[in-house]
Amino acid sequence: MQTSADRQDRYQYPAHWEADVVLRDGGTARIRPITVDDADRLVSFYEQVSDESKYYRFFAPYPRLSAKDVHRFTHHDFVDRVGLAATIGGEFIATVRYDRIGTDGLPASGAADEAEVAFLVQDAHQGRGVASALLEHIAAVARERGIRRFAAEVLPANNKMIKVFTDAGYTQKRSFEDGVVRLEFDLEPTDRSLAVQRAREQRAEARSVRRLLTPGSVAVVGVGRAPGGVGRGVLGNIRDAGYPGRLYAVNKAFPEDLKEVDGVPAHRSVRDIDAPVDLAVVAVPAEHVPAVVAECGEHGVQGLVVLSAGYAESGPEGRERQRALVRAARAYGMRIIGPNAFGIINTAAEVRLNASLAPEMPRPGRIGLFAQSGAIGIALLSRLHRRGGGVTGVTGVSTFVSAGNRADVSGNDVLQYWYDDPETDVVLMYLESIGNPRKFTRLARRTAAAKPLVVVQGTGTAPQGHAVRATRLPYATVSALLRQAGVIRVDTITELVDAGLLLARQPLPTGPRVAILGNSESLGVLTYDRCLAEGLRPARPVDLTTGARAEDFHRALAAALADDTNDAVVVTAIPAIGEGSPGDAELAEALRSAAAAVPGKPVLVVHVELGGLAEALSAAASTAPGAVDKAPGTAEAAAPATLTTPPEGTHLIPAYPAAERAVRALAEAVKYAEWRREAADPGRVPEFDDIDEKGAARLIGELLARGEGLTISDAETCELLGRYGIPVRRALPAPTPDAAVEAARALGYPVALKATAPHLRHRADLGGVRLDLADEEQLLRAYTELTELFGQPEELRPVVQGMAPRGVDTVVRAVIDPAAGAVLSFGLAGAASQLLGDMAHRLVPVTDREATSLVRSIRTAPLLFGWRGSTPVDTPALEELLLRVSRLVDDHPEVVAVTLEPVVVAPHGVSVLGATVRLAPPPARDDLGPRTLPAY
Questions:
Q1: What are the φ/ψ torsions at residue 878 (nearest 5 degrees)?
Q2: Rounded distance, CA 744 to CA 423, Å?
């Protein structure tokens, strides 16, 4: 860093430009400004660059930097001349700089908005995406300093650098002159540049997680000399799972002559291992972790799983220890799962890694499992593994991550990995907190379009060890936004597993129509009632009677599946007594064979005290030796089969011990399938010809010049909203009876008289509003009544407003949340929204389809559509209003809050009777900036 004596910059050292980034291969690097203290690092870096790369940079042989060069490349003013370096282990691996130039191509300052940019990447690190990451960051710096365009001159043979520029997605021009390719490109982000950036982010973050989950070699640091203890236990779990890679036990207290521990090579330090180590599992006390991190970094370890506790979960001192841990690991290019983690599991046949505290390897399957808490992770693994007393079956886990304090690797990173992981069909996540809701929502929407994502969301209070961005949104609002993104939101671990097993085993339903059949009339009726309660459309249950045989079930299920009026089938079964009653294996095979004949519809089984049937349903499709070809009713048939992955294309039938659990899982699958269909055509954000975006921006700039955060006046609110085609019905102040009369004459009768004092505003139930005042006499009488009831006019702040057509009173709000982004909300005015919380929410910008669904999402929506014979109101006009408000806050992030209340939706048109707008400097949009890991 610069000292005060050395600093020659016109600005202080821009610490906010420092960032950690994930590179293309999953490793990390630190990007920071170059300072005068970096002279030796720069010289050392340049010495390691090949002659060819130097030639490409300077267009001539340039074997070494002169003292003048070193001074030039390390002395910056951080405005017109800026240099950034990518570092690993504190050493430069790449540099980029820009110099502001004028129209004549010479150095300039002030109003010049163009700069020349140049890169140099160490040969050993070329191909890792370093230059692409540096370009994103230097472009963001340039925009901050008023530069709008970059120019670069590149030799035609330097294809790699030309590709860096052309692939970035910016609008550019290319020319060729004097043997040099000249590239010019605007720095304003485009849809393509953002898409490129996010695609690179996904690939890099996915690979960083893949490196952790598929290591070729593992060292467990902290293996005890005696049996027992965390380190020794994890070592045994990895070995017993059949991990095929190289495994090492490490403990600095090992005797020098100790060669093995439990058959695993033993070493006193990671440095002593004479082969590469991809992953280190750290199980030493927190005070010894820094030394272990340094050893691993120097040895080239790619990632760490830190099981050690004593970090942010323990208080302020531990929080600082956690920050230091992350900084140290990232300095070496390593990523961390943890600290205070339960561990990671990968059941793939070629990996078989159980680097966790789970004593048994879960059975292989297609479910990706993420939990932050170790206790929750244990519960989830146990629930999926159980064969009785609940949902059972052979569906297992593809990969499992328990992130602990998630100081580095978070649910977002793992979601990036699962998005295109061919081994994972369903993602289950237990999130005690969401560190970056805006990014999680974006990633969830993309993932949910490809595979189901089921989430249990914490109550909103983050555990002590979690760094979480502050949000002003209520818990229910965040939940609603997750559902909008396609997330299947459930409330308990039981529901998480119930939904996950159905989605992993069965196809998605094409609609809500449900057939019910079984050998219990009462259980069928119960299932029917639960379907109605969950919003499904069940047919009347088909009772096969308690004497039903296996072939009866087969015949009934086959008929139900073949019926085009059914989208799903629920089979109910109770134990049957009698000589002809089917055995569990016989019934399971009957159901499986019938379902296999029509594989496009989901089938669920509700069983009561019938553990054997759940076992048999799983075994019916198992490929394990002995799982089939056993005589029904024999001991071998009744015993649990060895569980293996079923044949490709086989749909296992999930069994549930209660109707409500099966139906709830099915209802979630129906809603998710509907979301998938709608997501395929999300609609569009419409253009409105009458919107004056530039005029609104000018007005906002003038208003903000008065202060950093302010609620603007009624007149200013009307002017700003009017520029977006949102008229507000005029209201005139009435501080005296005579002023009320004059206002009514100006507006024209009939009028309304309202008290706008804070305690009476929008509270018609308190009597502070008088409507349909047809003449001066009625107005004066109403004025007298209000002042007698509530006090003097200066307390009431009465206004007179022209009457709007009668309709349904609603409320429209928009707010920019620093964590989640801009949110548009809608509900009915009054008790429905205030007391019952009946509000619907969408992320901005809202499309036309989303506006339509927003209006219909509230529970009281029937009041808008002619409930009980009332006149339907103009919902298309309401939807247009919602779209205009969405455009306003999306176009102008300085508009941090808008409230329209009440908005009267009449049979023809809408009337905005009250409006407030708050302006403030917009919160930072990190999702529009360069790729970066959370700062520590």
A1: -65, -45
A2: 71
